[in-house]
Amino acid sequence: MMINSLLIITVLVSILFLIKIVDECEANNNTTFDNNYVITYGNDHFIQLNQGQEVQLTMDNTSGTGFVSKKGYGSGYFEMRIKTPQSQSPSIVTTFYLGNKCDESMSNCGHSELDFEFLSTEGPPYNLQTNVYSNDYGGREQQIHLWFDPSQDFHSYAILWNTHQIVIWEGTWASNGTGADWAKAPFQAHYQEFEINGCEYGTTDCSAANATFWWNKKQKWALNPRQQRSYDNVKAKYLYYDYCQEKGMLVLFVLLGLSCKGLLLVKSQKSDSNFDENYKVTWGFDHVLSLNQGTQIQLSMDKSSGAGFASKQSYSSGFINLRTKLPDRDSAGVVTAFYLSSDGDKHDELDFEFLGNREGKAVTLQTNVFANGQGNREQRTLLWFDPSNDFHTYSILWNPYQIVFFVDDTPIRVFKNNTKKGVNYPTKPMKIQVSLWNGEDWATDGGKTKTNWAYAPFKAHFQGFHVDGCSSVNSDCNSENKYFWNTKKYQSLDSNQIRAYEKVRKNYMNYDYCSDRSRYPTPPPECLDKP
């Protein structure tokens, strides 16, 4: 396969846990390993799990193992969910990369490659190296310290662009010459997510000129303002080596006509913002604990009290995110809430309410919308992952056009501003509110299942205290020029978001007030809108 150029390459790293469904992907992917991949070596060190939806690669001092896609690709969005080996040792390298193969029959082929390389250490820190090869020219290493432990759970890693391969192998170079500690073997890495969003090479035009593929569309040609800020934030805080800063290498790349621009994008949630910058504790002060220099907050609840915090400012529009890990074990009756709310009787409110359950049963996520004091717009969704295992990102997009509730970038609810049809739309300034409290009278099985206080204290954790919001003291919170969340891209869902939204509603929603004819014989006007 010949790859003519790698002119626009973006490498993304996601911090969403267990499941991340970006706007191009869908939930509940049932693609199995055998659909798109084949083992390349180390067959006896390879195991398929969960009916082929997960594979385990093992390495000891006899062999490692690897697999590769069956087809070659000329462009695409390639994503893999990976959990690196828990037995940490120098020299153990887990990789996920795209690369072409050249042989003597292919003139002017030139090796091209896009790399994720997880450099195992006795971490933290946990090191991730990316590299880009084009026409045999590599040496473009960038290295970051991951802000999480990649061996504790699955994380999603994606490359926007070309041929697909995965290997786990031993590399002394990765640890400054320190060999592997084989006493800790076998080293085991796990992979999930085997669907491929790629243009098969040689079957059609895979270039950016072919806009039939979503990854070639104009909105994918450059970062949007929010991505650019996230990219700059990660480079500033976590990038510890950049080939562009090596003077000799930079001169070489300038002579070759190559660029240092745009080779690494890490998608973060600004999780290092300090709590005190934008928030304050509002109640249950002795049940609040600040962790990691204020970048994480723990709320606890026992029989005596729960706890809560709120933003210092009110906002009139924004894209509000919070990374949350819910109480584990038996959390029946426990309510963890993240919501926006205005003051006064006829208040506006946008709710995430996580309704705890008995251990082993799915947590219900209830959303609600209040406008001018009118609520009773509940929708309930069974989460497709365990939200107590790790942090997930929950977001509320609120602009003059729509309100969208997101779970790890997947839209689960859309509320359109259609006042012409009689829709009552939230417009009052709102503060961000977070609380952990006892809702046993209603939260689980309609109040039949009570809180088991033997498991107290119940603890919820929160990160990501940066606020993308327009303070209500401003008069231009609907400006498209000033605030990215008001721009055309955020005024409606795109086609991929709609597919993900519809799939989640079909597979996981178990209550929608719009369909409850006992409460609403005539559906409210907002129920007639499409996303």
Write a structural description.
This is xyloglucan:xyloglucosyl transferase. GO terms for molecular function: hydrolase activity, hydrolyzing O-glycosyl compounds; xyloglucan:xyloglucosyl transferase activity. Residues 25-226, 219-462 form the GH16 domain. There is one protein chain. The relative contact order is 0.14. β25 and β26 (410-416) form a beta hairpin. This protein has helices spanning 33-36, 225-238, 247-255, 275-278, 495-508; strands at 10-17, 37-41, 46-49, 54-59, 65-69, 73-83, 92-99, 113-119, 126-133, 142-146, 155-160, 164-170, 187-192, 197-200, 239-242, 279-283, 288-291, 296-301, 307-325, 334-341, 349-355, 364-370, 379-382, 392-398, 402-407, 410-416, 430-438, 458-463, 468-471, 509-512. The protein is built from five helices and 30 strands. It folds into two domains: 33-101 and 109-244, Jelly Rolls (Sandwich), CATH 2.60.120; 275-515, Jelly Rolls (Sandwich). The two termini are 41 Å apart. The chain is globular and about 70 Å long. The strands form three sheets. The protein has a 15-stranded antiparallel β-sheet that branches. It has an eight-stranded antiparallel β-sheet with strand order 2-5-12-7-8-9-10-15. Strands 1, 3, 4, 6, 11, 13 and 14 form a seven-stranded antiparallel β-sheet that branches. By secondary structure, the chain is mainly β. The model is unreliable at 1-28, 104-108, 162-173, 247-259 and 261-271 (pLDDT under 50). The protein is 8% helix and 37% strand.
